[in-house]
């Protein structure tokens, strides 16, 4: 139990009268990578967005560290500093330079010392090989570069948990590799992550655990190795055989 | 056209020009402030207040400035609120312009993509910080073309001030026509007066629109 960072229990989400997530249960262990797989429209993005309050949920609960979150929870703002998120579409602020995008959270939300935050931001920019773009505006960057900056922006808040919502889905194939390498680097450093992706080779390589979602239900939960080598359900077998990897 | 009459009228038109400029300035400034407040209240869906301000917007946009001025200048004193003609003019401009500016700002704020707001929330910004660092800078620059159009519109609306006998440009020209029958000279001076204000302003606002667009999305 002590090793669990996040526990989701009987989570239910409705859109109006329609239930779109049904009785979701899973845990995320500290330092692990959980990959959320499933066909389009299965509820992966909705689920991941429930975990940092961008979507409300209507039943069950989420336990994150020592915080219990139930439907109607309002105090997401301080929690979000501990739960980083990177989206599918490029979400940098277009009116701010790269460095201003990155420092907005550390300086304004966390009230950190500017020099200390700047040093961290520069170190992370160096790690994603984008140091020379510190003063560029987002529109001067490629999609892959923007996503790497978005990851740096989330990491500069020193989150305990990272959510990645199909971060390579909008990228040209040659841009995908650079972004995935950054996430692999985080996994190697034992960052706790929940990753929604359609990149099966990447998922196979990185997943400690796989949650396979269909029609708003987790239909299979297994270790990464087991899911890709011996999927237990027919649906997961069909899904994997339909994917070209 | 008698040019010497035009020349003789210059000092009077200079005064009228300054009055038009002064009242426009305060009216537009007030309208921008009211517009910002109304658009924020409606954007952030502040309970109760958003309904009250919604009613104000409907009343303001669906009644002519002429009628609004009649109320402010002639009817309000009956209720114990007596203000000068100039203050009535500025109040009328603020009342009318506030709703137009609110619509302009609202268009800009709503034009900020939802993902921008979500990514701001995702890095822990509070609602106020979201407004300050994400929604407002992007929304305002999206609003600038509509605000610029409103500024020009409101300056032209000052011509209605003549009904409460403010000696601005139109009132001065109508006086000259009525008393001296110098119709051509008066209309010429009037057009020149508005053109001196509006043409440079229009050029300035176009430049500002371009600059704001660059400022918003990087250069």
From TrEMBL, chain A:
<dbReference type="InterPro" id="IPR030679">
    <property type="entry name" value="ABC_ATPase_HisP-typ"/>
</dbReference>
<feature type="domain" description="ABC transporter">
    <location>
        <begin position="6"/>
        <end position="240"/>
    </location>
</feature>
<dbReference type="InterPro" id="IPR017871">
    <property type="entry name" value="ABC_transporter-like_CS"/>
</dbReference>
<dbReference type="InterPro" id="IPR050086">
    <property type="entry name" value="MetN_ABC_transporter-like"/>
</dbReference>
<dbReference type="Pfam" id="PF00005">
    <property type="entry name" value="ABC_tran"/>
</dbReference>
<comment type="similarity">
    <text>Belongs to the ABC transporter superfamily.</text>
</comment>
<dbReference type="InterPro" id="IPR003439">
    <property type="entry name" value="ABC_transporter-like_ATP-bd"/>
</dbReference>
<dbReference type="GO" id="GO:0016887">
    <property type="term" value="F:ATP hydrolysis activity"/>
</dbReference>
<dbReference type="InterPro" id="IPR027417">
    <property type="entry name" value="P-loop_NTPase"/>
</dbReference>
<dbReference type="GO" id="GO:0015424">
    <property type="term" value="F:ABC-type amino acid transporter activity"/>
</dbReference>
<dbReference type="InterPro" id="IPR003593">
    <property type="entry name" value="AAA+_ATPase"/>
</dbReference>
<keyword id="KW-0547">Nucleotide-binding</keyword>
<protein>
    <submittedName>
        <fullName>Phosphate ABC transporter ATP-binding protein</fullName>
    </submittedName>
</protein>
<keyword id="KW-0813">Transport</keyword>
<dbReference type="GO" id="GO:0005524">
    <property type="term" value="F:ATP binding"/>
</dbReference>
<keyword id="KW-0067">ATP-binding</keyword>
From TrEMBL, chain B:
<feature type="transmembrane region" description="Helical">
    <location>
        <begin position="130"/>
        <end position="155"/>
    </location>
</feature>
<feature type="domain" description="ABC transmembrane type-1">
    <location>
        <begin position="17"/>
        <end position="209"/>
    </location>
</feature>
<feature type="transmembrane region" description="Helical">
    <location>
        <begin position="88"/>
        <end position="109"/>
    </location>
</feature>
<dbReference type="InterPro" id="IPR000515">
    <property type="entry name" value="MetI-like"/>
</dbReference>
<feature type="transmembrane region" description="Helical">
    <location>
        <begin position="23"/>
        <end position="44"/>
    </location>
</feature>
<keyword id="KW-0812">Transmembrane</keyword>
<keyword id="KW-0029">Amino-acid transport</keyword>
<dbReference type="InterPro" id="IPR043429">
    <property type="entry name" value="ArtM/GltK/GlnP/TcyL/YhdX-like"/>
</dbReference>
<feature type="transmembrane region" description="Helical">
    <location>
        <begin position="186"/>
        <end position="208"/>
    </location>
</feature>
<dbReference type="Pfam" id="PF00528">
    <property type="entry name" value="BPD_transp_1"/>
</dbReference>
<keyword id="KW-0813">Transport</keyword>
<protein>
    <submittedName>
        <fullName>Polar amino acid transport system permease protein</fullName>
    </submittedName>
</protein>
<dbReference type="InterPro" id="IPR035906">
    <property type="entry name" value="MetI-like_sf"/>
</dbReference>
<comment type="similarity">
    <text>Belongs to the binding-protein-dependent transport system permease family. HisMQ subfamily.</text>
</comment>
<keyword id="KW-1003">Cell membrane</keyword>
<keyword id="KW-1133">Transmembrane helix</keyword>
<dbReference type="GO" id="GO:0043190">
    <property type="term" value="C:ATP-binding cassette (ABC) transporter complex"/>
</dbReference>
<dbReference type="InterPro" id="IPR010065">
    <property type="entry name" value="AA_ABC_transptr_permease_3TM"/>
</dbReference>
<dbReference type="GO" id="GO:0006865">
    <property type="term" value="P:amino acid transport"/>
</dbReference>
<dbReference type="GO" id="GO:0022857">
    <property type="term" value="F:transmembrane transporter activity"/>
</dbReference>
<keyword id="KW-0472">Membrane</keyword>
